[in-house]
Description:
The protein is mainly alpha-helical. Helices cover 57% and strands 8% of the residues. The protein has 5 helices and 4 strands.
Amino acid sequence: MKTSAYPLLLSVLALSGPVAGCLAIKTEHEVKPIQITMDVNLKVDKELEKEIEQEKKAPPKHMAEIKAMSDRGAVGMDNRGYLAVRGELSDDEREIVEDANAKRRVRMGEIAEQTGAKRADVEKMRAEKMLEHLPAGAWYQDASGNWKRK
């Protein structure tokens, strides 16, 4: 007489199911944060464009004085988008530079906060963007920190 192994196999599987549920299997896994990279550069770029357009429409209070200092090479734009002293300035001129930079710092902080970007990245992008708008002959600092004349 020939018997099939299938009924026996099914019986073993049916009985082992509840027992297998009682077994503890230890697994190890590492929880890693998922980093979502959102291109904040587009947001920052848009905000910086607005900033530049606003400055064109309503120049800062002491723009004429800043331009005169720039024309004589006493100030230039550093690689973070701020004014940097390159020559002799009067106390009044130094105050103008410090005031302009303080306002820029506040605005760069606002843009960083609005866009979720790092302040240093916003400043770097501002310097790159402002370079496009600097007049010929103006001094600027390249990304490596070297001074050049446009």
